[in-house]
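so the lab meeting is tmrw and i was supposed to have these ready like two days ago... anyway. pasting both below. for each one the top line is the aa sequence and the line under it is the structure tokens. i havent really looked at them closely yet so no promises
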Amino acid sequence: MCDGARRAGLESHGIEWDANAVATRLANRLATTHGDVREFGPSDFPKATVLAGGPPCQTFSVSGSGSGRRQLEIVLAAIDDMAGGVPIDWTRFDDDRTSLVLEPLRWALDAHCAGRAYAAIVLEQVPSVLPVWDAYATVLRGLGYSVATGVLKTEQYGLPQTRRRAVLIARLNGVAKLPEPTHRPYRKGVPQGGGDQSLLPWAAMDNAIDQHAGREYEVVSNYGTGGDPKNRGRRTNRQPAFAVTGKASRNRVVAPDGTELTRFTPASIGLLQGFPEGWTWAGDDLSQQIGNACPPPLAEALFRSAT
């Protein structure tokens, strides 16, 4: 989320466990601590006034293991325990990545107890995490925050892909509000120029990348729709991309005559995720880095709304 913070005029410092993501962050001059977020706390960053986070999504995502969704009740019970000062039995979680969704609350509670409560909190995750953010909201309101939660569509913030994200914005002073959309929602069958004329048109893949400039093509998703791997989604270059995931490089690109075109490069996938031209991707596993990132245009909108 740090590039979005930078776009919003905020100085940021991120904690990142993955060495590849650290290499990319440093290559783009983003202040970074390489380590496990569980080994740090608010006292390590005493000047910070905004807390932001996007915990790992793999156990909550519909394309992931699903263990986080299956353990949702355990996560919600843990939130109640944390609010009441009850120690958490971390062994109850099948996957460490699921328990990391509780880390932002730990930081918020620790900062509040230390008398240095964050002025604002910004969180984002896949839609299935919305119940977790709603439970957070109850706890944070008890600490004096105004809180707004919901699911946002990324194409409504200028992103050339359809991606839904569960978000939380909390403010210690003032009223928390989700950012107002700037672009129209994408609806199949509705032309780019159709819909609410008070909003900008949604962006198509062609509006963002020129890897196959001047050619018509269709992107065939790596994922099957309706749970059927044989029923893969298809979008043309005149439509937004599907949600960019860590496997986006596997998406096929096909010309109208069936000719297989070059698959999207990491640079093109990064543009679909909202990163700027000239962004440096470093390390390995680039598709996973890009797919795991919070789209910078959405992050910028969240930070501007929160601060």
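ok protien two:
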Amino acid sequence: MQALSGIYDWLLDPVAPSIRYRTLTELLARPPDDPDVLKAKQAIPTSKAVTDILRKMHPDGYWLQKNPRTGELLGDGTVYGSFATTHFCLAYLAELGMDKEHPQVRKAGNRYLSLQKEDGDFWRHFSCLYSYNIRTFIQLGWREDPRVQKSIDLMLNTARPDGGYLCDTHEGKYKTRAVKSCIRGSVKALIAFAELPEYKAHPRCTALVDYFLKRGGIFRSDDRSELVNKDVDKLFFPITWKASLVEIAYALSKMGYGQHKALDAMWAMLEKKQDTAGRYPLDWTPSQALLKVGKRGEPNKWITFYALLARKYRNGESA
């Protein structure tokens, strides 16, 4: 308990108000009107992490990034670049505890949602995009917006034989055999469903959970000794389209499956990542991201926060 108290002290350092706010509200379950919560939340919009992102926003409500190969500027539409275009920046702001009450966030969020396709898609039915966006916009406070529900309906109505998700780029690319679902897109759908408890019993959600339980969370479904891809034993932040170990553990636990026996090996792998103080390292972070979260290979507050949150939900404490 003393070691955990020390980790909480580390996470609660006022120098990082976003981590402090989320630790208070999500790990420690402090109410919204708690004085410490209010003070931390008030400090978020003027924190360096937030202002660094908002300062680079185009006045019309988007973030641009140059394609290093073509020189093309991306970000004013839904085609995205490497970790610094609009949908990523909105996700980073959501992680930091911002919401649509902030005028810049509201402008950028509404503009991006206006680019949505009629069926709720954003670009080529990339499940790693529309599912990612669902989570972002729920965090930012747009859950009741009909446009967000349209994307949720797309996620609910997109079925595949193995229970996972894919995209138009890969669907049907083999002539003689079926294409397996994409673990990265499936993880993004999983973390979206983790924000939607009202759909926990929906057949599409249970099929996706079964997709992960059949593979012990992170392994090949036909060989539990082999990881499904090179991402899944790594600890990544911020959350992007990669499939991080801590994301999978967090999402499944928040949905109530943390104690499932099929996940024991996954949990053992996560626990081996801890240092002697109980902190978790950052294995990788995109250098292009406008959200800077620390150095690779060092103990990381964001990774530790999500790992502790996963453990909290695994132990049966409610989301």
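from a quick look at the 2nd one: The first strand starts at residue 65 and ends at 66. The mean pLDDT is 95. will dig more after coffe
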